[in-house]
Amino acid sequence: MLKEGQYRNPSGCAVSAVIDRSGKPMSGRRMIDSIAVMHERSNGLGGGFAGYGIYPDHKEFYAFHLFFDDRAARKTTEEYILRHFEIAYSSEIQTRKLPTVTDEPIIWRYFLAPLPRKLADSHLDEREYVARCVNRINSGIDGAYVFSSGKNMGVFKGVGYPEDIGEFYRLDEYEGYCWTCHGRYPTNTPGWWGGAHPFGLLDFTIVHNGEISSYDANRRYIEMFGYKCTLRTDTEVITYIMDYLVRKRGLTLREAAKVIAPSFWTTIETKSEEEQREERFLRRAFPSLLITGPFSIIVGYDGGIMALNDRLKLRSAVCAEKGDLAFVASEESAIRRIEPDLDRVWAPAGGEAVVFELYGKEAAR
Amino acid sequence: MKIDARGQTAKRLNAAIAASHDKVVEVEGVVGQRYLGTALVDKILKIDGIPGNALGAYLDGAEIELFGNAQEATGDTMNAGEIVIHGNAGDATGYAMRGGKIFVEGDVGYRCGIHMKAYRDAHPAIVIGGRAGSFLGEYQAGGTIVVLGGEDESRTVGYFCGTGMHGGEIWLRAAQPPSTLPPQVRADKVDTLPEHIEELIEQWCEKFEKEPNIYTGSKFLRLTPDTANPYKRLYTAN
């Protein structure tokens, strides 16, 4: 069977997200109910969730979620992990067997702390050290794939309808202050568990509806900085672009949004002098990271989410608020299912980033 | 007849609507069911909730009244009839519409009226009470779009209004033309509204209980394709 990376997948898809800005935890059940409304946007070949704040008892450790094809791959990977990390706790991820979710790989979870001496010798920032280890496992060990690697958060994904994947991972038993999810509609899929969304690197996750036409231009540029686009899907390259701009170059999320979905030059001309200066600078500094083609994405990170549409708005996205809760989804109905009575509902313009964060997060920076 | 939509698929809802012997069918508790009222000919459908995409697609004479917001592609390729939305409508409202009328109380998203067209006695019309997003009337080939702009006349439409427009007319309640109008579209200031536009505005006011004088006394712009500057040789020299 051809896997992602040997086959390119254009996709349709559904996205949804909820965050309680007061930090109050909620069950993953809410996201399962939301994404189920948009069943027709998926075709059963991929679904997934990211939950934030779900591991409060192990929040100081990097939580790795891994797919293994077989026990040999697990053994090789664990040998690698032990050379680079201390394993605080590890176990197979508990799942619920369902007739609609089949051919699942071996799925394990590890709570890890980098070995202090190894980390010091590497002369790397801790997060860069972890990101490189993820990269090494994914590109170097056959049959092993790290699909989640942040602290106090986790990605859960697989092949199936998203609502079934949510049941499979028993997400009703997890509680987090923020959830994002994705239902996939790839038109030519090899159907591999690692190819489902969300894509994650450290605490950054991306769910994405669309098909970017600038993929190769973006990939060539981002690979210059050590990223390896092994899966050849749009979402993977967007994940690396966001990681590069925000973690490595220190841009804010809103600035990063102006790089990947900038205004047209003619539109920039109509803006204030200060806005013109900023937008012109960002377009000129990172021209190869402009993403063209239709997309709506939700970026999840420690303490917040950001929603963004392509600048032509060729995909739908709706935002809403109700008290401390904030929502983003491909369709308003997916929000109304879990919160019928909303304070505010609006559709952001193309290229307009909408950021919802925990209260006090902005001040903490 | 009243139908409770909770837990029902779109297919079952449409079958129940079609099977009803009553002229008026009320559907409540709608959350995300797509294609409601597809190709419906002679009923009055009243919907409570948030229907899924393509509400009233291929509508062929029926009347749909929605109490809630509409999602994407409302009235996709509709042929005849009327859709009234007490709320906002999403992107591509009136997509490739061929006849009938759509009245929206609030705003519409991007690409409203994309590819709408007119033929002989079929003249589709969309009246928007609020603001229209970017690419209003993209590739418009016929029919009429009216944007009232709500309270604030200065923000009637987004960017790139009338891109690729080659037929029909767009009426904006605005004193100044949009800043990014393509060179192939001309904007004329109109002081006295023609009868067919006044009629559309009056119909909109009646449906949403507004005072017509507020709107009909305002300055309007009429956008049409500029026949003196056609699209000739836009792509190739042939």
Q: Could you explain how this protein is built, in words?
A:
The complex is a heterodimer of chains A (365) and B (238). By secondary structure, chain A is an alpha+beta fold. Chain A has a domain at 11-54 and 152-217 and 294-364: Glutamine Phosphoribosylpyrophosphate, subunit 1, domain 1 (4-Layer Sandwich). Chain A has twelve helices and 18 strands. In chain A, the strands form four sheets. A seven-stranded antiparallel β-sheet of chain A has the order 8-3-10-1-16-15-17, covered by helices on one side. In chain A, strands 11-12-13-14-18 form a five-stranded antiparallel β-sheet, covered by helices on one side. A four-stranded antiparallel β-sheet of chain A has the order 5-6-4-7. In chain A, strand 11 and strand 12 form a beta hairpin. Chain A is globular, with a radius of gyration of 19 Å. The termini of chain A are far apart. The model of chain A is unreliable at 7-11 (pLDDT under 50). Chain B has 238 residues and is of the alpha/beta class. Chain B has a domain at 88-235: 3 Solenoid (Pectate Lyase C-like), CATH 2.160.20.60. Chain B has helices at 10-19, 195-208, 212-216, and strands spanning 2-4, 24-31, 44-50, 60-67, 80-86, 101-104, 125-128, 141-147, 167-172, 185-190, 220-225. Chain B has an eleven-stranded mixed β-sheet, with helices on both faces. The longest helix of chain B is centred in the C-terminal third of the chain and has 14 residues, at 195-208. Chain B is globular. The mean pLDDT of chain B is 94. Classes of the chains: A alpha+beta (365), B alpha/beta (238).
